[in-house]
Design brief:
This protein is of the alpha/beta class. The protein has 12 helices and 12 strands. Strands 7-8-9-6-5-4-3-2-1-10-11-12 form a 12-stranded mixed beta sheet. The chain starts with 8 loop residues before the first helix and ends with a helix. Bound molecules: S-adenosylmethionine (SAM) and iron/sulfur cluster (2 copies).
Amino acid sequence: MNTNAGEFLDSLESLDALGRPLKDLRISVTDKCNFRCPYCMPKEIFGANYEYLSKQSTLTSEEVVRSATIFRSLGISKIRITGGEPTLRMDLLEIIQGINSIGGIDIAMTTNGSLLTTLAQDLRRAGLGRLTVSLDAVDDTTFSKMSDVSISLDRVLDGLESARKAGFQPVKINTVIRRGWNENTILDLVDYCRKSGDIVRFIEFMDVGSTNNWEMSEMIASSQLLETIQGMYPLEAVSPNYMGEVASRYKFSDGKGELGFISSVSQPFCSSCTRARISADGKIYTCLFAVGSSLDLAHELRNGSTHREISEKILALWEKRDDRYSELRSSGPTKFTNDEKIEMSYIGG
Ligand code: SAM
Ligand code: SF4
Ligand code: SF4
């Protein structure tokens, strides 16, 4: 196996069918979670009888690190660890240490925050660079409704505090606003982040998967959230940190931090989407809404394929990529049926 990360960099870089380079990677390390957010893993579906991936089919920590090495050699410099809930993986620190040892990769992770009190420092030491915590409310009642488990809001808030103390500053907060569920919490969340120094990013409720009963009427567009927040705190638009940044950023005019909006439904950003995804069982997807996997990386990793052979298959896949689901959704009905769509907890948000 050839694991020299830089070796193929120049020779193999390429653009997809719509001219987009491959720049970042999301790796889902588990499809399991200790929350049951109804917009992602509704209890009625993800109950005792739900068939999760087996341990055998899930990528091992070594396989995750090898995958990261291959993608690094293709020019990837950002990896986000996600799930399911990544902190449920017992070998999470090994995974992060392994990816960190490749070099040249900015490692981020998205978590529900429930296990951060014990993990935050070790994650930092292992080489995790940035942390995003999902938090859909800062009052107990709404939080419980949005997470649908008995884990308390305080546990997540304590986890956030541990993360800040461990050096993750600023922490980013992901908040999905769903009409009729948690729009009451918008300004409280903004206040919370203005005090804590975290950066909140409001995410539009998306039609990922086929189990969350998504309705367009429950999606509140970012423009409307912006108006609500502007009514309380004047905001000024800020230019993106880098080309292709998915969140549109605003800073508070009084200097007390910034926030962002991820408007996947109302303002799709497919034209600058440079992201590949690996599911927990090692399938590569080139879109959050892809129908069926594009390449069985686990199979390639397990059948003795070389670094170069796998790299070439990934590039061949990328060169054919023409996904732009969100753009197509805005221009009319899509070709997909609900049965074909993959779940967010499997592919990673
Ligand atoms: N369990 C971790 C967490 O919640 O942060 C990581 C995985 S979760 C699938 C990643 C992100 O996807 C979370 O911020 C979550 O809010 C978001 N998400 C899940 N389902 C969504 C949906 N239908 N629309 C928009 N965002 C969604
Ligand atoms: Fe779990 Fe995250 Fe999905 Fe909520 S959004 S159910 S925390 S994977
Ligand atoms: Fe990227 Fe697919 Fe989302 Fe468009 S719909 S931004 S191509 S993941």
